[in-house]
Amino acid sequence: MSMPAGWYDDGSGRQRWWDGEKWSEHVAPEQSGGAAAAQPPTGPSAPSANGYAAATTGPPSSPDRVAPVLGFVGLGLAVLGTVLACIPVTFVVGVVVLIAAFVVSLVGVLTKNTAKWPSIVGMVLSVIGGVIGTIVTLVIVAATLVGPVPPAVPTSEPPATSTAQPTSPPTSDAVDARPTPEEIAAQFEILAKEGGIVGYEGDPDFYPCMGRFMYDSEVSDESLRLIVQGEDPLETEREIAGEAIKQATLSCQS
C-alpha cells in the first residue's frame, strides 16, 4: 500500500522524506539537543529502511473551521432590532436588541476559525438600524403631535350684495323677562323704607336674600315685574306672592 508523501522516521531515528513511493536522500536536520527538528504535519506510518513501520510526530494540524453561529445570531438580532426600533411603542426594546446584536457580532468577529462576514454584516446593520429606527420614530411622533392638516380655506370671498337686509325689530324678551334678584331686592328695600320699616338696615344681606328667595319662588314673571314696579301682583297670585314674601322674611332674618 503506497503511503502519502511526508517526513517519516527511516528507522535510524532520523526524519527522511518519503515521496509516496520510495525514500529520498533528503534528511531533516537535527536540533542541537539531538532531537529531530519540528516536521510537517503528522502522517500515517511509512515503511522504514529496515522494513518496520515507524510512526512520526510533528506539530498539530490546523483545526477545522467551525460554523459562524455567533455571527448569524448577531445578524438575526440586528434585523429584529431594526424592525422594533422603527415602531414608536417598541423603540426602546429595539435599541436594546440592537446593542445586543452589536456585542454578539463583535464576539463573533473575534472568534477564531469562523467565517467573519455574518458578524461584520450584523455589526454594520445594528448601527444603521439604530439610525433608521431613530429617524422613523421621530417622524411618526412629530406627525402625531402636529395632527391632521385642515383643508385649505378659499381666500376669495363672494361679492357683497347691495341689497340691504331688513333690520329685525327688537324683541320684547328683555321687557317680559323675569326681574333679577337685585331688582327685586332693591324694590323691597324701597317699599320697606316707605312703610317705615327700618329694622333691617343693619343687616346688609337681608334684602339680597329676599330678592333671591322671591326670584326662586313660584311667583310668575309678570307678578314679579309688577312688584318691582311698585304695583300689586296679579290678583290670581296675590295669595301665592303674599306667602312667598312671608317665607322670605322669615328665612332671611339673621
UniProtKB/TrEMBL annotation:
The keyword Nucleotidyltransferase does not apply. This is DUF2510 domain-containing protein. It comes from the Bacteria. Residues 11-28 have a biased composition (Basic and acidic residues). The chain crosses the membrane at residues 66-85, 91-111, 123-146. Residues 5-35 form the DUF2510 domain. It comes from Microbacterium foliorum. Residues 1-61, 153-178 are annotated as: Disordered. Keywords: Membrane, Transmembrane, Transmembrane helix. InterPro entries: DUF2510 (IPR018929). The keyword Transmembrane helix applies. Residues 29-49, 158-174 have a biased composition (Low complexity).
